[in-house]
Amino acid sequence: MPDGLPRSFGLDQVLFTLDEPETKPLTETWTTITNDINLVLHLLALYFCWEYPIFASLSKEHFLRDFRDARHRYCSPLLVNALLALGCRFSTNPMTRDSSEDSHFAGDHFFKESQRLFDQETDHHSLTTIQALGIMSIREASCGRDSESRYYVGQSIQLAFEMGLHHAHGEGDQDELAVQLATFWGAFSLDHVYSLATGSLPQCSCFPHLPSKPVIIKDIEATLWVPYTDDGAPLRLPCEQQSNERSVYKCFCELKYLSWYDAIPDVLRLGHNFSPAVLFAHMYYHFAILLLFRPLIKLRIIGSQVSPRDVCLEAANAIQDLLMSYSRLYTLKRVPSFMPYFALTSSIMHLTIMAVTAPREELDTTERTDSHVSKASNQGITRLAEMTPCHYITEQAPRILCYLAKKWNVDVDVNTGAILNHEEYERVIRSCTSSLNSFLLPMITEGSIFLWDTGKEVEGRTSSQPKKTAASMEDPLFWPFLMQRRPMLSGGRELEEAGFAML
Predict the structure, then answer these.
(1) Interval 307-319: pLDDT, tens
(2) CB neighbours (10 Å) of residue 3?
(3) Which of 65, 96, 267, 358 is the most buried (most CB within 10 A)?
């Protein structure tokens, strides 16, 4: 790789923020891919600026201290290469790519080196390996390879339990305890976001004992978050503010989202703090609410004024409003890796609301439009397009939305570039996973959200059309995560006994 990236403005503010400034020139890059220390520091700064501390399984302070001092306790070549691979997603510099001109290949060479180092290990039971697996998982999610992403997070949380990190206690070395807690809760929270998104059990669904949450440290809370980009150009608005890193990180360790949001700390309230991580945390809450009520959008709760459809619409609107705020502050060219999934899920929900609010007899004949929802849907599509340079999943998103709009006969303006036929759409909207899992169900080929009236329709298909029945279990409403299935809802009396009725 060519060397010679100049030292970027603002880098020291991102990487060396506490009372331990860089005291000597750094020369050790920790990677065989490049010997350009400025490039390595630049990519690390991009990661710590735009992604950290979201689902982070490492302690920034301990990692950077050992990185600087060439010490292997809390830093390793595997972890550094994984961080560099993820940091490349926030850069358009040609030096982040090995040879291809396509920005979607940014960081591939660092990632392949991470894989090589992981395969070379004879014992994976180390904190830095668990941390690296979490970072590799986030990077693969950014690339739209959710199957691989979930594999890495599964390995990460499994190793954390095998090492007994869930039994971490406050005695002994405080540095070791702090890093153990960060490692466990990072792996735990990342595993749970996949469990939430796919409607599946987490790696460990029974918690006889969990360690204490990471401690809030005032000095770390008070450090400034400073926007950092490829060229050091200032953003449109002054955005320097307290990072509140530990408060943000701690919110991802919570298991009761409603309770957390009701008692949200003042430092995380909108208007008080608007760093990328804080805006992401609010989106994550609304994403969780949307996922909770999404299977029920054609139902009403008997005896309740709460409408699942209205709750989903409010959550989708809230996500779009937060995306608009993020765009105005920072643009959407650099967003955390899971934010495109929030945006796509929100846009799919807007399409779904437009589709299911039409009278039943008009489903196949009348294009449905709702001015507010249609506007929100189009805005969501525009915002996804703005994220494309950073995250490959957003390149698939317009085609997914166009596919659904055509299938559900919804009138929205989706620009997907080249005109594709039905078969080509089904090919490009599939996850770009390289998984060889032969047990994946085929992508749905018929509309399905309108099969929710009763359970009998699905049962009726079982004997005569088993392939279509199997296909109907993988619903576009529950994309973009691979292996996500439509919940099987009972009908008739069973539905009523559960407290629901059809709209």
Answers:
(1) 999 999 999 999 9
(2) 11
(3) 96
